[in-house]
Amino acid sequence: MWILLLSLVLLGIVSWLATHFNWFHSSETKPAEEASSQESCCGLHEVCEKDHLQITDPVVVYYDDEELDAFAHRPSDSYDAEEIRLFESVFETLSPHEVAGWLRSLQLRQIQLPSELMEEALLIVTERRQKVQ
């Protein structure tokens, strides 16, 4: 009798520990978590990943703009005319669908876009979003 009671208590403790520490984490929970994150997308998966400015992937993508790394940690209003022209030269080479990715890349690299270009860049991203919807 004591052995049966002791084994039930032990089984209860082990099951509580297993659920509390998630020891028996099955692979079946991962697709459910991925599905719930995909449901928040608008359904146009290609556009959702490319046209939002939130950083979801911490990998830095360069757009032939490695020279802009020298401007990391500088405020957007501290650039002189020559430095702004450097940003403009990169910006002008981008196609409209690359602008959101470039802005994310700058954010990851701690580079603030000059305020003169920020308005135009955000306008392009907004127009692309409106075309898709």
List keywords for this structure.
single chain; 133 residues; mainly alpha; 2 domains; 6 helices; elongated
Short summary:
Helix content is 59%, strand content 0%. By secondary structure, the protein is an all-alpha fold. It has two domains: 1-40; 42-133, no CATH class.
What do you see in this structure?
The chain is mostly helical and 133 residues long. The chain folds into 2 domains: 1-40; 42-133, no CATH class. The chain has helices at residues 2-20, 29-39, 45-51, 81-93, 99-108, 115-132. The N and C termini lie far apart (69 Å). 10% of the residues are buried.
Order of helices and strands: HHHHHH
Secondary-structure content class: mainly alpha
Percent of residues in β-strands: under 5%
**Could you name the ranges where pLDDT drops below 50 across 5 or more consecutive residues?**
26-51
Structural domains: how many: 2
The total count of helices amounts to 6
User: Termini distance?
Assistant: 69 Å
Tell me about the biggest sheet?
A: none
- The dominant shape is elongated
What's the total count of β strands?
Answer: 0
- Quaternary state of the chains: single chain
- The level of helicity is 55-70%
Rg calculated over all Cα atoms: 25 Å
Output mean pLDDT.
77
